[in-house]
């Protein structure tokens, strides 16, 4: 059994009908960042996943990677920074605005810390924080999620700089036009730093943990509910045998953003239109070997 990423997820058909009835212009997509936190497991790469609470207005009950919307304070230019420059990141992300690129990268690192406790930052360019599991770090995560403090303040108070060299841009997905909540989400990959432990902490999720890439694909659409961006990302990750291979493969400019279109299937029902590469990867999963 394999998931069909072109099938409209639960509730999307109703949203499409409402959108068509209103004949309204699409909602502007907000910029967001999501980090695929990876580690090597016994059976190959594993990713840290969270299940969003069913009460959430967007993707309720779905399994997602840590991530969220860009905070305007993420664009500040006084953040301690090592790794590729914001202008280099703008090129990798296909953005014309250097400030926007800085904000996306900072949001990716901040959201990873908020939702998993893993912090891609250290006192200098050659080290990362060794442990973020104590009560002081838990309070910092809570304050960030509540927007009571800025990420730059959390870093400055501890003498830390963001390690943007540990991130790689993977892809970008834009929510279909008929969705009432739309995001332009930049996905990143990173290897979980040695010594740090990923753990749930966000009020938006009710479960979290590590799951192998192959296991996630096998369970997708059944015991693991996920949206097309996550499933298609797993299809891509499954082409690599280790975290190192994945990070190396991402050392390039980000591909063109993916925004699913719509078409009528043979049964007359609307279906998502995705790039051909995802259909090919999905067929390869079920092809006889």
TrEMBL record:
Coiled-coil annotated residue ranges, if any: none
InterPro entries noted in UniProt: NUDIX_hydrolase-like_dom_sf, NUDIX_hydrolase_dom, NUDT19
Highest taxon listed in the record's lineage: Bacteria
Residue stretches making up the Nudix hydrolase domain: 29-232
Keyword Cell wall biogenesis/degradation among record annotations: no
Keyword Nuclease: no
Protein name (record): NUDIX hydrolase
Organism of origin: Actinomycetospora endophytica
Lineage: Bacteria, Bacillati, Actinomycetota, Actinomycetes, Pseudonocardiales
